[in-house]
Design goal:
The chain is α/β, with parallel strands linked by helices and about 180 residues long. The protein contains 5 helices and 5 strands. The chain has a single domain, classed as HybD-like (Rossmann fold, 3-Layer(aba) Sandwich), CATH 3.40.50. Strand 1, helix 2 and strand 2 form a beta-alpha-beta unit. It comes from Lutibacter profundi.
Length: about 180
């Protein structure tokens, strides 16, 4: 259960950042999804932390999306393109990186990690409202979720710089049409 304090902080975050009133039509959002307290499952958030330490183009925003709740919908709908970074349990070796270009919620892998249902539901809701941005999904394979740790296994930790490089490569190839 989420405490009232956390809910108020979340409301304050959205109010002070004013995403709903900003013009993001020429911007790209890189969104890390995952539970930071579940080991490898938090690789998307760890990737956002790594991206925060480098210079990115002015039209690129980064965000820790946590476990991808419906609260992200008004933010995502402001961008023409969102690059998701998320863990997946797809029976591939830990640290395997895939880049997927889903067009609909049904195109998302069925084996995203613990927050899979909420993320797909959010995408379907955006699709239903005709507010779904273009999506690029960068997944990192994990083999287990370890509760109450922020540490990553070696293979997943070593994949983060490769994920960052893939994202930078994608960003270098993208132009937002005005």
């Amino acid at each position: 259960m989420i405490s009232d304090d956390v809910m108020e902080l979340q409301k304050l975050f959205y109010q002070t950042h004013n995403y709903l009133n900003s013009e993001k039509k020429d911007s790209i959002l890189v969104l890390g999804i995952g539970n930071y307290l579940m080991g490898d499952e938090g690789v998307g958030v760890h990737t956002i932390h790594a991206l925060s330490k480098i210079d990115l183009p002015d039209n690129v925003d980064i965000m820790d999306g946590g476990t991808g709740s419906f609260d992200l919908m008004p933010i995502l709908s402001q961008y023409p393109l969102v690059i998701f970074v998320d863990a997946t349990m797809d029976n591939k070796p830990a640290g395997t990186i895939d880049v997927i270009y889903p067009k609909f919620a049904a195109d998302f892998p069925t084996v995203l990690s613990a927050h899979d249902v909420g993320l797909k539901d959010m995408i379907e809701a955006l699709e239903f409202q005709n507010q779904l941005p273009k999506i690029i999904l960068v997944t990192v394979s994990i083999t287990e979720m370890i509760p109450m740790t922020i540490s990553l296994t070696d293979n997943v930790e070593n994949s983060i710089q490769h994920v960052v490089n893939k994202i930078l490569n994608i960003l270098n190839k993208i132009t937002i049409e005005k």
